[in-house]
Amino acid sequence: MKRNLMWRILLIIFILVISLWSATPLKEKIKLGLDLQGGMHLILEVETEKAVENAVERIVDNIRSDLSKERIRQVSIKKDEKNNIIFEPRSDRDLKKIEKIIKSYPLERAWEDKEGHIAYSFMGRNVKRIKENAVDQALETIRNRIDQFGVAEPTLQRQGKKRILIQLPGVKDPDRAINLIGKTALLEFKLVDEDHSIEEALKGKIPQGYEILYEKKIDKVSGKVTQRPHLLKKRTLLTGEYLTNAEVRIDSRQFNEPYVLINFDKTGARIFKKITGDNVGKRLAIILDRNVYSAPVIREKIPGGSAQISGSFTMEEAHDLAIVLRAGALPAPVKILENRTVGPSLGKDSVEKGVNSMILGGILVIVFMFIYYRLSGLIADGALILNILLLVGAIGYFRATLTLPGIAGIILTIGMAVDANVLIFERIREELRLGKTVRAAVDGGFAKAFRTILDANVTTLIAAIFLFQFGTGPVKGFAVTLMIGIIASMFTAIFVSRVVFDFVLSRVRVKKLSI
Predict the structure, then answer these.
(1) How many domains, in total, are found in the chain?
(2) Is 240 helix (H, G, I), strand (E, B) or coil?
(3) From 433's CA, which of 53, 166, 211, 506 has a CA 20 to 30 Å away?
C-alpha cells in the first residue's frame, strides 16, 4: 500500500514540476489570437471556374502546337463559353490526326453538328480535380506569401469547397496585406505591336490576335496617375512558371529607384534567350495581372536567364512584388467575401475582463467548496489549483493560441473541475450515512462516482473534439482549452484527490471525516 502510494505521489510531483516549467515564462510561450491582439479576419473565395478555363486554354495552346508538328495548320480550333474545345477539320485525314492527338489529353467528345464542328470537353472527374487543386494550391501560395510577409502565427484553412479562412494577428497595414494576398501574380512576357496604329485600336479597331493593356505611371512630384496604352500580341511568349527567384535591387542610374530582378530556371533561360535573340530591336512587355509594368526595347540577345521589372516602385511595393513572384501565381483569381479588422485596444480590454472573470470565478468556487464541504473542500480546492496549473502549463508547452473563447473554456473548466469532486463527496456522504467507516466510505464514494464522472467527461470531450475538428478560429481556441481542461480535471479529481485522501488516512487515524 505504501509503495503504491509513493509512486503515485512521485507521479503527481513530476507532473507538477513539468507544468511549472512549461508555464514559465508564460508570456513568451502563449500566443494571443486575433480577437485578443487585433489583426485581420478574411474569408476568400477562389474562382474555381476560372481555373478550369485556364486549364482549357493551356490545352488549346498545346493542341495547336501538336497540330503544327503534324503539319495541320488550316484546322480551326477555339474555346467556347462553356469551356468546350471546338474543331473544324478540313478532311477525314485531319480528323483522324486530331482524334489521335486528343487521346493524350483528359478530353471526351461532347457533341458534333451537321456543319462538321466537333466539340471536346473535360471529363467530369477532371473538372472536379482541377477545382479542388485550385483551392489547395491557392491556400499554399497564400501561405507562402504570408510567411514571407512576416506575419507571426497566421491562421489559414480551407472552408467548404472553395473558400479560405485567413486570420492575421497583429497586422498593422490591412490594405497592404489584402493587396499581397489577393494579387493573382500571373507574370507574362508579350511583344508590343509595332505595325498597327494604337489610335485606331483605341477606337475599337483591334486587329485579330492583338489586345490593349495599360501601363500605369505615377508622377513623383504631383502624384498624378496616368495610364499609357500598349497594343500587344495576345500570344504569351513566357510566363512566371519558370521563375526561380525574385529580389529587390537598387538602380543607381535612375535616382536610386528600386526594381525587381527575376531569374529563370534552365528551361526559362533558354526560352528567354530565344525570345530576345529573335526580337532584337522590338519592345517586350512585362505584364503582371494584366497590367504592363514596363515595355523595354530588346537591345541584344540575353543569355543569362534574368530580367528586371521596373515601374517607379517604392521600396515597399518592390518588396511585395518580389514576394508574390517568389511565392508563385495563384491558379485562379480570389475575391474577398468577408473582411474584418479587430483593433488591439479591443483585444486588451477583452484580455483584462477575461482574466478578471477567471480569477473571480476561481475564488468564488474555492470559497464555496470550503464552506460547503469543510476540510474535504480544501482537498477539492487544492485539486482545482493544480488543475489550473496543469491547464496553463499545457497551453504553454504546446504554444497554443489563446483566444477570448479560449479564456471562456478555461473559466468553464474551473467550474467543471470541482464538479467531479462534488459527485465524489456526495457519494462519500451517502456511504457515511449508511454507517460505514471513513476508509470504506472514501473507497465506496470514489468507486461509485467514477463511472458517472467518466461518462460525463467523455461525452464532453467528444463534443470538444468535434468543435476542434469542424470549428474555425476562436471556436478552435475554446475547444483546445476545453479538451485540456477536461483531461486535467479528471486527473486531479479522480487521481490526485484520491491520493490526498489515501495519504491522510494512512498517516492519521480519522474517526470522523470533515465533509
Answers:
(1) 3
(2) helix
(3) 506
